[in-house]
Automatic annotation (TrEMBL):
It comes from the Eukaryota. GO terms for cellular component: mitochondrial matrix. Signal peptide: none annotated. The keyword Coiled coil does not apply. GO terms for molecular function: oxidoreductase activity. The keyword Flavoprotein applies. The gene is Pyroxd2. It is found in: Mitochondrion matrix. Keywords: FAD, Flavoprotein. This is Pyridine nucleotide-disulfide oxidoreductase domain-containing protein 2. Its main location: mitochondrion.
Length: 356
């Protein structure tokens, strides 16, 4: 349990609750949920430029990371077809992967296929079900892909000025503007209460908010004097109580709740907002192909980790389809911007390719 880990090492409730956010981030779980301690450890593993557990901003925004990977690949002869949706994996007579078919009917032949899509999309949408073992299909169908996350991107005409640390007179970013700012995290009980509301189908009345201002470190992301604010918030259920969907009214009502909370910490924030983009769990699923809106392609719970990710006997990146490999967040070791699943999958695929 996360609570036991934090209680062992820390005394301050605000500090424990702030650290607890990394144990429930992206998870429809409470700090009191068994297994939540692992998710915290998952988020502080590794290092960045020699600093253990450190995180960093990507210059130019997160898309710049994808561009860097793409440029490295094309420099070595790869061909990248953006905006070309895959319809299904092409199978040979023996059921082996032989390439992919695009939605426009184009066939792309290949000896190996690596899927960065989620296990649910890869095996339930891109492969005919009769080609897969029944127990495997059942396992993939049963994957817990619930997500509590609503992401709100905000454009503001000035830096937020927090009551706890008011802005300088020149309006320049202060050290805390360049960090992750956690709001509504004064106690783990607040996080548990926010989870409980969502578990009953209601968006949290006092949501957990992780706020960062990447333009404080990377001014090119916004016009002079203006900033972009990224809000990672939870808990919001995929389906609202009573079977209601996330219509425009529900989305704006939740965003208003989030903004009211920020206003309590940083008066004047709401007046500084120029525009906002609200992405609820169904939006994250529709736009980015994240099942249930889950940023990890599937819960990071103990029954869906290690040898069981995405399914028992298939944690080694190979799949029931010879020549088809899973290399995204739904594979071991799970989500996070670290590339471990992709690197491991590539090594397995190269090993197999040499035998073809």
């Amino acid at each position: 349990l996360l609570g036991q880990i934090l209680d062992h090492w820390f005394e301050s409730e605000p500090l424990k609750a702030t650290l607890a956010t990394d144990a429930v981030i992206g998870a429809m779980a409470s700090p009191h949920t068994p297994g939540s301690g692992y998710v915290l450890l998952h988020h502080v593993m590794g290092e960045l430029e020699g600093r253990r557990g450190a995180w960093g901003y990507v210059a130019g925004g997160m898309g710049a990371l994808s561009q860097a990977i793409a440029q490295a690949a094309t420099a070595r002869g790869a061909h990248i077809f953006a905006e070309k949706a895959v319809c299904h994996v092409l199978l040979g007579r023996a059921g082996e992967a032989q390439g992919v078919v695009l939605q426009d009917g184009t066939e792309v032949r290949s000896k190996l296929v690596l899927s960065n899509a989620s296990p649910k999309i890869t095996f339930l949408e891109l492969i005919p079900q009769e080609q897969l073992p029944k127990d495997f299909v059942q396992r993939i169908r049963q994957l817990d892909t619930r997500s509590p996350v609503t992401k709100i991107n905000v454009a503001v005409d000035r830096l937020p000025s927090f009551l706890a640390a008011p802005n300088a007179h020149d309006g320049q970013p202060l050290p805390h503007h360049q960090c992750s700012i956690h709001l509504n995290c004064e106690g783990t009980q607040l996080l548990h209460q926010a989870f409980t509301e969502a578990a009953q189908g209601h968006p949290s009345s006092r949501p957990m908010i992780e706020l960062c201002i990447p333009s404080a470190l990377d001014p090119g992301l916004a016009p002079p004097g203006c900033h972009v604010v990224s809000l990672f918030t939870q808990y919001t259920p995929s389906m609202l109580a009573g079977g209601r969907s996330w219509d425009e009214q529900a989305r704006n009502a939740y965003a208003d709740t989030v903004f009211d909370c920020i206003e309590d910490y940083a008066p004047g924030f709401k007046a500084s907002v120029i525009g906002r983009d609200i992405l609820t769990p169904p939006d994250l699923e529709r736009i980015f192909g994240l099942p249930g809106g889950n940023i990890f392609h599937g819960g990071m719970s103990l029954d869906q980790l290690y040898f069981a990710r995405p399914a028992p006997s298939y944690s080694g990146y190979r799949s029931p389809i010879p020549g088809l490999y899973l290399c995204g967040s739904g594979a071991h070791p799970g989500g996070g911007v670290m590339g471990a699943a992709g690197r491991n999958a590539a090594q397995v695929a190269i090993k197999d390719f040499k035998r073809l």
